[in-house]
Design brief:
single chain, Beta-lactamase, 7-stranded antiparallel beta sheet, 3-stranded antiparallel beta sheet, globular
């Protein structure tokens, strides 16, 4: 397996942050005017990495991971990657499919016999992983009614029983409804079929074999060592809480680094780590109006007048923002991690420019 740290020279340093003196960022690769312009315009804090087939050609860290503690962002700073967690979860599910333990097309009642019949007999893993199940989001109303709900840390099975039993909103596969309850159900299925905790399965099937040594699920604890603090957009920047239950890991609870994500994208999309059928499932768009496949998006980039496909994983929660873009034809990758509540659209457009893509219509 790939030795990540052998691929790169050490990098990462302090640049400009609101209220701090300017310092030139140390890193790998020549200066990049696209990055420099974006950092100046957006007062960007975080890390930017560009690479090909798992090897970085450019990496810079800007600003602070923890302003109050005076800790600069570095190449190794860990950020919450939010919905990129769905991609990590989907990889584990596809590996279970390859092992014959799951089927993307079987009704979920095969593993969750207590699920109400109308959804249990019609909803499949494909529907859950593409956010098209029709199962309503019972979690958000419950959270509004009980702000202490996050402290209860319900199990996956308990969460499915509590939040996934409402009347279906639409026939499975007919509409897109992006919410965490789909992923609560996925977690419960994974635990039911393996007899292991969901986090242990993702570690065994996804993060450990991909050598993602800095990637883990977290509960959003403020000032956790090595983790960038979440901030509301300023000025001035203000610390922003990011509490979560363990069951939220599948949809948005993982934390990672640029190096972990760069190498994982290469191994997953460019090598036989997954079977050909699994890679096809991971990159086949099922919801065209959302560019959504299983656990993430596949976008079309216009580069030098030609349309090129790119896996496009993004994350947004509290003040964290992330982009993992990977060209499926060349293995080029862009990773952007941020902790200051920047516009997700602005980060997507920034990634487009780093790929040399034409502006979106």
């Amino acid at each position: 397996m790939i030795d990540r740290r052998g691929l790169f020279a050490a990098a990462g340093a302090l640049c400009a942050a609101p209220g701090l003196s300017m310092a030139a960022p140390a890193g790998l690769g020549a200066d990049n005017p696209v990055v420099d312009a974006f950092v100046a315009e957006q007062k960007f804090q975080g890390v930017v990495m560009i690479g090909r087939k798992g090897r970085a050609s450019y990496v810079r860290a800007f600003g602070m991971a923890d302003i109050e503690a005076g800790k600069p962002a570095t190449r190794d700073t860990v950020y919450c990657v939010a919905s990129i967690s769905k991609w990590l979860t989907t990889i584990a599910v596809l590996r279970l499919v390859e092992q014959g333990k799951l089927s993307l097309d079987a009704p979920i009642a095969a593993w969750l016999p207590d699920q109400r019949p109308d959804t249990g007999k019609t909803v499949t893993l494909t529907h859950l992983l593409s956010n098209t199940s029709g199962i309503p989001n019972g979690f958000m109303p419950a959270l509004k009614a009980d702000p202490d709900l996050l402290k209860k840390n319900l199990s996956a099975a308990e969460s499915v029983k509590a939040f996934a039993q409402g009347d279906p909103l639409f026939p499975p596969g007919t509409k897109f409804d992006y919410h965490p309850v789909n992923w609560f159900v996925v977690s419960a299925i994974v635990e039911a079929v393996t007899g292991k905790p969901f986090l242990a399965v993702v570690r065994e099937l996804t993060t450990d074999p991909l050598k993602m040594s800095h990637t883990r699920a977290g509960l959003g604890v403020d000032a956790e060592p090595g983790v960038a603090v979440s901030y509301y957009a300023g000025p001035p920047l203000a610390r922003r809480a990011n509490p979560r239950m363990e069951v939220m890991a599948a949809s948005g609870g993982y934390f990672s680094t640029v190096d972990d994500l760069l190498v994982a994208a290469h191994v997953v999309f460019d090598t036989p780590f997954l079977s050909e059928a699994s890679r096809k499932a991971l990159t086949t768009i099922l919801v065209p109006e959302q560019d959504y496949a299983l656990g993430g998006r596949v976008r079309s980039l216009t580069i030098d007048g030609q349309v090129k496909p790119a896996a496009w994983e993004t994350g947004r929660t509290a003040g964290y923002r992330s982009v993992l873009g990977h060209r499926l034809d060349t293995g080029d990758t862009v990773v952007i991690l941020n902790n200051t509540d920047l516009s997700q659209k602005a980060l997507d457009l920034f990634a487009d420019k780093l790929f040399g893509a034409a502006p979106r219509p």
